[in-house]
Amino acid sequence: MAASPGQKIAVVAGGGSGIGQGCAIRLASAGCHVILVGRTMAKLEETAAQIESAGGSATTFPADVRDWDRLGELQAIVEGEGVDLLINSAGGQFYAHAEDLSRNGWQAVVETNLNGSFFLSRQLLPALRKRRGSIVHIVANLWQRGAAGMAHSGAARAGVVNLMRSLAIEWAADGIRVNAVSPGFTDTPALLGRYHPLVEKVPLGRMGSVDEVVDAILFMAHAEYITGEVLTIDGGLQLI
To answer: pTM for the whole thing?
Structure first.
């Protein structure tokens, strides 16, 4: 790990693209050493190259957040220094009605979103405890209401929110804050095309940008008297 003495350390899961990549670049520009976690090494290397070309520092760590043992290897790397911030932007979903979902399809989404959130948080707990760090989970906004074709993803994200609140209580004595940001329609490649026509229902009349979501994430990361909360950033969509 290439962090300088005294430098803040941030782990960003899902740091190879979209919101996670935006977080990683912004954190590096603010002086953090960023550890990029994700399944696709090429994407992590691309993000690391952007960070380093701008004068920042980053380390790549290819891993599937469903892999408990691999995340334990990450903890072994960071345990000496500790971790100031964990951003969990790793996730995945696909559109399918419940009657068409297979066992494997259900498990893939639940394990990536819910199990992955717990595995990351639990395996990095000793490092977070060392620096009284902060955790921010990114949970797609569909957890707040029924979503046809997304029962697997909505259930998993709702589970992450409850997990976040429970960990916020359990780990408060260690000075660890645990929060979530819940984006609505955000202009990233991961947004399913079938949802683009629904943007007209957003009261503010547009999608959110990655930078706007990153603003919310970093606010929750650094707001020292907030824990166990979800900040919704969806242009007012949940109001209708």
So the answer is: 0.93
φ and ψ of 34, to 5 deg: -110, 130
Q: What is the pLDDT of residue 126?
A: 98
Print burial letters for 123-158: b (CB count within 10 Å at least 16), e (below 16).
bbbebbbbbebbbbbbbbbbbbeebebbbbbbbbbb
Cα-Cα end-to-end distance for the chain: 47
Give me the residue spans of the domains in the chain.
9-239
Amino acid 190: pLDDT: 65
- Could you report the per-residue pLDDT of 167-205, keeping only the tens digit for each? 999 999 999 999 999 998 888 776 656 666 778 889 999
Q: What angle (nearest 5°) sits at the alpha carbon of residue 181, between those of residues 176 and 187?
A: 145
CATH of the domain spanning 9-239: 3.40.50.720
Q: What are phi and psi of 37, to 5 degrees?
A: -115, 135
Residue 124 has pLDDT above 80, yes or no: yes
Residue pair 83/27 in contact (Cβ under 8 Å)? The answer is no
**Angle CA(114)–CA(191)–CA(58) in degrees, nearest 5?**
70
Q: Nearest-CA neighbor of 123 among 177, 61, 172, 71?
A: 71
